[in-house]
Every structure is written in C-alpha cells, then in structure tokens.
Automatic annotation (TrEMBL):
<keyword id="KW-0378">Hydrolase</keyword>
<dbReference type="GO" id="GO:0008422">
    <property type="term" value="F:beta-glucosidase activity"/>
</dbReference>
<dbReference type="GO" id="GO:0005829">
    <property type="term" value="C:cytosol"/>
</dbReference>
<keyword id="KW-0326">Glycosidase</keyword>
<protein>
    <submittedName>
        <fullName>6-phospho-beta-glucosidase</fullName>
    </submittedName>
</protein>
<dbReference type="InterPro" id="IPR017853">
    <property type="entry name" value="GH"/>
</dbReference>
<dbReference type="InterPro" id="IPR001360">
    <property type="entry name" value="Glyco_hydro_1"/>
</dbReference>
<dbReference type="InterPro" id="IPR033132">
    <property type="entry name" value="GH_1_N_CS"/>
</dbReference>
<dbReference type="Pfam" id="PF00232">
    <property type="entry name" value="Glyco_hydro_1"/>
</dbReference>
<feature type="active site" description="Nucleophile">
    <location>
        <position position="375"/>
    </location>
</feature>
<dbReference type="InterPro" id="IPR018120">
    <property type="entry name" value="Glyco_hydro_1_AS"/>
</dbReference>
<dbReference type="GO" id="GO:0016052">
    <property type="term" value="P:carbohydrate catabolic process"/>
</dbReference>
<comment type="similarity">
    <text>Belongs to the glycosyl hydrolase 1 family.</text>
</comment>
Amino acid sequence: MLEMNKGFKPGFLWGGATAANQLEGGYNEGGKGLTIADVSPGGKIRMKLLRDDSYPLEIDTANYTYPNHLGIDFYHRYKEDIAMLAEMGFKTFRMSISWARIFPNGDDAQPNEAGLAYYEDVIDELLKHNIEPTITISHYETPLNLVKSYGGWKNRELIGLFEKYARTILERFANKVTYWMTFNEINTGVMGSFFTLGMRNESVNNNFQALHNQFVASAKAVKIAREINPNVQMGCMSIYATMYAYDCNPVTAAETMEKNRMFNYFCNDVQVRGEYPTYAYSFFAKNNVTLDIQPGDLEVIKENTMDYLSFSYYMSTAHSSDPAHSEGVQGNFFGGTKNPFLKASEWGWEIDPVGLRIALNDLYNRYGVPLYISENGLGAIDKVEADGSINDTYRIDYLQQHISEMKKAVEIDGVDLMAYTSWGCIDLVSASTGEMSKRYGFIYVDLDDEGNGTLERSRKASFDWYKKVIATNGEDLTNKD
C-alpha cells in the first residue's frame, strides 16, 4: 500500500526571495554599469513610459524619481540583513546577480572583479549563517547597453554574451552555490515584457524570437554549470496564474485552454521537456511567427533540460467569451474577468490560495520534476504604530492560507515540493510600481516612496510568525504565541 507524505520533507528549503535591482542600491558603485531597471522610474507612470518608444532610456532626475537607485541599501547593509534572515531560521535566500555588476556594458572583454568580489562576500555571509543561496542569473536587469546597442533579446548576439556572463559567475560560484535559476519569470516575454526581453512595442514575431534566444542561452548556461559541477541544481522560473473558465460554455473552455498553454505551459514545456510543443507551432502559423532557429539550437535545448521547475504565484485569472462578463480586474496583469468568488488586495490582485494547490498539482502532474515556489506574498501598506510595532496580521493570514494549500498538495496530492521563498522577505522596491509603499516583507525598512527615511530595519508581527513556521517545518501555522 502506498504511503501518503506526512508534511514537508526534511530539509525543505524555507526562505525568502529578492532581486538585485529592487534592494541592492549602489546602482553606480563598484564599477557597475546601468541596467534597464536603472532607467525605469518609480510611480504610476512607470509602466506607461516603459511601453512608450518615445520615452528615452536615460536617467531623468529632473522629471522622475528612481527609488531602485538606493533600493534598501542592501549593497552596504547585507551583513545586517542576512543576520536578521538567519534569526528567522532561513534555510535558503533567493537573490539575483546583476549582469551589469559583472559586465558593466554586457559585452565587455573582461569581467568587473569588484562585482564578483561583492557577490562572493554576500554568498560567504549567507553560508556562514547556514543559509543556502539560490541565485537567479537574470532577473529583470539586462545591461542597458545591450538594449540600446543590440536591440535587446531579439538579437542572437545576446546568446553568446549571456553564455560568457553565465560561465563567469558559474566558474566563480558553482562550487559554493547549489541552486540556480536562469531567467526570472521568462514567460512574461509571451506578453512582450520590457523587463524580460529588453524590447518595447515589438511584433509578436520578435517577442518569440527573443524567447527562443533566451531558451538557447538558458540551455547553454545549464550545460556550463553541469560541466563545472555535476551536483548543481538548475531550474527554470516562470510566473503561474491558475486559469479558470468563467462558465461552462465550451467556447470559453477552449479559449481558456489556449491561453493557459501559451502562458503557463509554453516556456516550461521548452525548458523542462526540451522541445517546442505542437500547439506552439499552430500558434506560430496562426500569428505568422517565423523563428530564426540555427543548427544546434534545438539539440542544445533538448540535451540541457532543467532539474526542477520554479514559479511565482500571486493570483489566478478567469476568462469569459461572453461580453456580458466584461468587468475586468484592477491590477491583474493577466487581464481576464473579475472572479465573483475572490477578494482582492489593495492593488487589485485577486487572492486565491486554493489556486496555488491547483497550480502545484497541474505543474507536477505535467512535468514530474521537483517544484520550487520562488515567489508568493501580499503587497500591502504597513502602518507603524506609536510603539514602533507593525501588526501585519493581514500578511500572516495570506501566507497562512497559501502555505496550508501547499501542505495539502504535498500530503494529499503527493506533489514533490522542495522550497518556498516568499517574495520580498525584507521590504524592497516594488517591480510593478517602482515604489516602497507596496510592501511584502517580514522586515520593515524605514523608507518612503520619495527616498525619505532612516533605512532602519524593524521586525513586523509576521517575522516571529514565519520564524515559528520554519522552526516547525510548516506544522504550526497558527498566529499565536
């Protein structure tokens, strides 16, 4: 008789996730070059400008603010921050390396030793506290020169430049770091994301050509890693949104299937299964997409598939083919129809814990590789009380509900889940708004959207709660002392 899993496996990787461009600061220190994040302003105008070809990719402090230039000053305060993560009992810390700290222009002949030394110090500090680093090689921070001089990822030359960058950091760190991810939320490129592809208002053809180039570059990074250290674990990373058909109309169901497979499956199919799925070729034909696939591309993709699949989960989405169900969802970047069964966050993101269990089952049954939840969390405005406390019970409730559904997926459904790293474990600059006020962390950073504040760190109520969750390996999720 088969035995069911009893809770999360021993050695489960509890922790938190960040990105260099959202917390490091020091954007022009230590020999670092500019990235696309460095010219992306904060505030409500952020996304509009980044989709506008007429907006110059330059720093314009006379008209805009750039909170990520300071971030939370992790660049100088990483020892203090890592000590607080260790106090919570973190098993892993997901971070990214900024390509432009290693190759300031992306195409430099030699790497920047100061950048390599900085990340070596951060990695060593994590290991000193028995925290496993999980490193994302490219997290929304392509060097600006590669966008302005090469046109972004539609240019095949970026494959070789990324390969050189990946080899440099893997040769330096692959014997210290076991867990790696190649591209953050790579499937946002299906929608033509500037942060992913380094391109604005491109054609569908160019978007998928850029993704193909990233698939090849990713596979080459996997190959390099295994040549250096066969024990490394290489993962792909995508954003997943559980998709529901709004009604039982077969037309709605079919349309939902098509949207689901192109957004949630396509990039994972290529990187985990090692080949383009048949439905992608149908999509390409329908949309007049003709890819420049060079000899050897498909072979390197096939031969260098992923050890695990990582994904972010923040929300689900519903689709309807009926114009009568046309009420959209404020803040839902997948679009879709408002789901009457769900509540939403302050930013209009629909909250669906059960959707996470569905996602885990869907991905594990499809791919059969270990899963790593690399981002999940609630962005909210936190109030500091007169006594300095931050009673973020709303965040505890959100995480409690999601981790409970994770546990069901493991215990009842038999999903092989290896890690959970909540997003923005220490407050950082939001990617979607470029502001500090949308906070996710267990650790509060005294900094506002205009860059005012002491940068002092303090523990929220969720800090002690998550510490208890980790200490009990997810057995005690209660919000009690």
